[in-house]
Amino acid sequence: MKRVAVLISGRGSNLGALIAAQDASYKIILVISNVEGAGGLEKARAAGIATEIVPHGGKSREAFDAELDAALRAAGAELVVLAGFMRILSDGFVRGWEGRLINIHPSLLPAYRGTKVHERVIAAGESESGASVHFVVPELDAGPVIAQTRVPVHEDDTVETLSGRILAAEHKLYPDALKLLASGKVRLEKDRALRL
Ligand code: GRF
Questions:
Q1: What percent of the chain has pLDDT over 90?
Q2: Would you say 162 and 124 are in contact if contact means Cβ atoms under 8 Å apart?
Q3: Which residues line ligand 1 (CB under 6 A)?
Q4: Alpha-carbon dihedral sign for residues 153, 159, 161, 162
Q5: Whose CA is nearest to atom 6 of ligand 1?
Q6: What's the pTM?
Q7: What angle do CA 94, 39, 177 make, to 5 degrees?
Q8: Residue 105 annotated among the catalytic residues of the structure
Q9: What stretches of 106-159 adopt beta strand conformation (E)?
Q10: Which regions of 24-181 does DSSP assign to beta strands (E)?
Q11: Exactly one of 56, 105, 118, 171 is catalytic; which is it?
Q12: pLDDT tens digits for range 3-52
């Protein structure tokens, strides 16, 4: 049973899915938000999970990351899951949690890293998009992919319809990928996600 901390900044729909899917492989012991009013905090509290707010304003990235790191270690976190966490983490933080830090991104990585993914996917006329769960490495959205899910892009899709379709797929994908990691069925090996 791995002790998991989830980092959020917003509504926390993935957090909700991760809470609902907890099983013998992982338990969410802490939710940290850098945003005070993040909707996901309510989801955590309703589930009886400890929450902490670590604001990022008025401090350096390194100072912010050091506070995060201290809170995670004090809680005895073993795995750290980014779920709509809108801060870029410093190289030092990422190295400190190497192989134990994962993120979900709403594209078929390595395609469409970064922001405004759905706008770009629609503008490019793609017929398919999806979501990827990956190990976090210092370069943004560049870590080895653990699991992906694909969805069709329809001709009349808007950012809202496409992001909604992908989000629904994320809610299955993220718990599945976390269970693989928590139960030792995947690990970061050099620069790839090794399935065991
Ligand atoms: C999701 O689209 C995820 O892929 C991205 O941020 C969004 C988070 O949504 N990284 P939620 O807060 O989990 O609802």
A1: 99
A2: no
A3: 10-14, 83-84, 104-106, 131, 167, 170
A4: positive
A5: 84
A6: 0.97
A7: 45
A8: yes
A9: 128-135, 145-152
A10: 26-33, 50-53, 79-82, 101-105, 128-135, 145-152
A11: 105
A12: 999 999 999 999 999 999 999 999 999 999 999 999 999 999 999 999 99
Q: For the chain, how big is the Rg over CA atoms in Å?
A: 16
Token output for 150: 């694909």
Chain centroid to Cα 135, Å, comes to: 9
CA of 168 to the centre of ligand 1 (A): 10
Q: Any residues with CB less than 8 A from the CB of 172 and at least 6 apart, and which?
A: 17, 149
CA distance 153 to 32: 33
Q: How far apart are CA 144 and CA 119, in angstroms?
A: 24
Q: How far apart are the CA of 84 and the centre of ligand 1, in A? A: 4
In the prediction, which pLDDT does 135 show?
A: 98
Average pLDDT over residues 141-145: 96
pLDDT tens profile 53-91: 999 999 999 999 999 999 999 999 999 999 999 999 999
pLDDT of residue 8: 98
pLDDT at 159: 98
pLDDT for 155 equals 97
Q: Kindly state the tokens that stand for 189.
A: 């090996």
Q: What is the residue with the minimal CA distance to atom 12 of ligand 1?
A: 12
- Using DSSP's 3-state secondary structure scheme, residue 28 falls into strand
Atom of ligand 1 lying closest to residue 16 CA: 13
Q: For residues 108 and 55, what is the distance between their CA atoms, to the nearest angstrom?
A: 31
Q: What would the two tokens of residue 25 be? A: 């492989």
